[in-house]
Specification:
Elements: E1 33-35, E2 59-61, H1 64-72, E3 79-82, H2 104-109, E4 114-117, H3 124-130, E5 135-137, H4 144-158, H5 161-180, E6 190-194, H6 207-213, E7 218-219, H7 236-242, E8 246-249, H8 252-255, H9 259-263, H10 272-275, E9 279-281, H11 294-311
Parallel strand pairs: 2-3, 2-4, 4-5, 6-7, 6-8, 8-9
Antiparallel strand pairs: 1-5
Helix pairs in contact: 4-5, 5-11
Length: 312
């Protein structure tokens, strides 16, 4: 199961947000695949490529996270089409193209000079490189440094290395500032990150788990007997017994979950997080992608930790 699989609205569910969610970043090798010569001017030791026809002008992105990265580094004007799940920014040219079930013929018909994707589904990389279409593969990040590296790689591939470096620097500063503002709780706080109402969660070893780790939070999912690659399916009884100090709902858009609905689940009215108002609704998209908006997630988590710490 691929994280990019569901980056469309969650951190990792089945590929491309298909049917049933396990939403958090499933660990994948942090390897970036550059197939063929990306573009004539993307080398140069990471220097900004000069504005010219050498820059790709008909980019197709089949990854919501990559789409956000491309626009953040200033390559938006070069993007010809994006996949159906790339809903940010709003002006991105969304199509019915799919990163989960890529159709080589449909992609080739767009006459792209660069295709960016997360997973090599259905042998799409071979199909594209066979007709000499350059491909950049940006696997789901397993740690923050992976995200930074992907942004830098896209900057190089599109002729926006300088802008990419600024984006990465801004992300690092934003995250560092958000963490620095939060006082470490006297007693480590526990949390539950919900991927869907059937209690799929994510352990500390996942990308999202490491985000929470920035604040020293303890993940109740880490004690699950079956880790399922970092995304265990817990149970109502398990969560109730763990009684987390904080609950983060990453299923508000996909599944309509709210703090009120959580509190209405049998026995959940007694949860510490429910009683103390520490149930935090997250934007599914922001909590499922490893692009620049991860800074917004870090800030939201930091604010929740501060509030919970004061309520201790």
């Amino acid at each position: 199961m691929s994280p990019a699989a569901c980056e469309g609205s969650r951190f990792s569910r089945q590929p491309e947000d298909s049917v049933r969610p396990i939403r958090s970043l499933v660990p994948l090798p942090a390897v970036f695949l550059l197939v063929s010569a990306l573009v004539a001017g993307c080398g140069g030791g990471g220097q900004e490529a000069s504005p010219s026809a050498a820059r790709p002008q008909r980019i197709i992105s089949l990854s919501p996270s990559a789409t956000e990265m491309l626009y953040a580094i200033g390559a938006g004007a070069q993007v010809k089409a994006v996949d159906e799940l790339s809903n940010y920014p709003k002006n991105a040219p969304r199509t019915k193209l799919s990163g989960f079930k890529p159709n080589a013929e449909a992609i080739i018909d767009q006459n792209p000079d660069l295709v960016v994707l997360s997973d090599d589904m259905n042998g799409i990389v071979k199909s594209l490189t066979k007709v000499k279409i350059p491909v950049v593969q940006t696997p789901a990040a397993t740690k923050l440094s992976d995200s930074y590296a992907e942004i830098a790689r896209l900057g190089q591939a599109t002729g926006h290395s300088a802008q990419a470096a600024k984006v990465v620097a801004g992300m690092k500063k934003g995250i560092a500032d958000a963490v620095a503002k939060v006082r470490k709780p006297a007693k480590p706080l526990t949390y539950y990150h919900e991927l869907d109402p059937s209690f799929h969660s994510a352990t500390s070893q996942t990308f999202i788990g490491q985000v929470y780790g920035l604040f020293g939070l303890r993940n109740i999912a880490d004690k699950a007997k079956e880790k399922a690659g970092g995304y265990p399916e817990l149970s109502a009884e398990y969560v109730a017994e763990a009684d987390p100090d904080l609950v983060f709902l990453a299923d508000t858009k996909c599944c309509g979950q709210t703090a009120a609905k959580l509190g209405e689940r049998p026995g959940f009215e007694k949860l510490t997080a429910v009683r103390k108002g520490a149930v935090v609704p997250l934007d599914d998209d922001i909590a499922s992608r490893w692009g620049p908006r991860i800074v917004d997630l870090v800030r939201q988590v930091g604010a929740a930790v501060t509030k919970a710490e004061r309520a201790q």
